[in-house]
Amino acid sequence: MKIILKQDHDLLGATGEIKEVKDGYARNYLIPRGIALAVTPSNLKAFEEIRRQQSRKIQKEIEEAKKLSGDLNNLTLNFTVKTAEDDKIYGSVTAQMIYNALKEKGYENIERKKILLHDHIKTLGEHTVDIKLHTNVAAKLKILVEKEKVEEEHATAENTQEEVANTENS
């Protein structure tokens, strides 16, 4: 019996393929579970229309992913981290941190698992991170890791303490 696969199947093939299987396998397993349809003229027409609609939808998703890729390629995310005296980072910059920063910038539709970090970022400087937006579309995001300005914070804290002491004495 010839069938049209309605969904991907590990053993038979991909969605939309027409396969020849044994009658009992098709009638008792594939068709009742919604995995396949019997090949008839009306099923062929309906499935071709569904395939055209899916093709248009996929094409639209690819165009949106390419546009988003262009935006992300021009974007640089800055992270300020605490460091030891030898400029070694306490902790690391993770995919979750990048995801949160992208959300703050207005990129809510990017999934965290699509941010491809080969390893956590543990050094200062500029790094490049891949983001997989669609099957064939990826973006390269620049990450700039800088150390926290500890000396300036101490100086400003001391100045404010001096100002408070001066106003109390006045």
Q: Describe it for me?
A:
With 170 residues, this protein is an alpha+beta fold. The protein folds into 2 domains: 2-48, Ribosomal Protein L9, domain 1 (3-Layer(aba) Sandwich); 68-152, Ribosomal Protein L9, domain 2 (Roll), CATH 3.10.430. Helices cover 42% and strands 23% of the residues. It has 4 helices and 7 strands. It has helices spanning 23-30, 41-73, 95-104, 150-169; strands at residues 2-5, 18-20, 36-38, 76-81, 115-116, 125-134, 137-147. The strands form 2 sheets. It has a 4-stranded mixed β-sheet with strand order 4-7-6-5. Strands 2-1-3 form a 3-stranded antiparallel β-sheet, covered by helices on one side. A hairpin with an 8-residue loop joins strand 5 and strand 6. It is elongated and about 75 Å long.
Write the layout of secondary structure elements.
Elements: E1 2-5, E2 18-20, H1 23-30, E3 36-38, H2 41-73, E4 76-81, H3 95-104, E5 115-116, E6 125-134, E7 137-147, H4 150-169
Parallel strand pairs: 4-7
Antiparallel strand pairs: 1-2, 1-3, 5-6, 6-7
Characterize this entry briefly.
This protein is α+β, with helices and mostly antiparallel strands and 170 residues long.
Highlighted features:
2 domains, Ribosomal Protein L9, domain 1, Ribosomal Protein L9, domain 2, alpha+beta, 170 residues
DSSP helix fraction: 40-55%
> What name does CATH use for the topology of the largest domain?
Ribosomal Protein L9, domain 2
Proportion of strand residues: 15-25%
List segments where confidence is low: pLDDT < 50 over at least 5 consecutive residues: none
Element-by-element helix/strand order:
EEHEHEHEEEH
What radius of gyration results from the CA coordinates? 28 Å
Largest sheet descriptor: 4 strands, mixed
**Would you identify the CATH H-level superfamily of the largest domain?**
Ribosomal protein L9, C-terminal domain
Q: How many domains comprise the coordinates?
A: 2
Arithmetic mean of pLDDT: 85
- Can you count the beta strands? 7
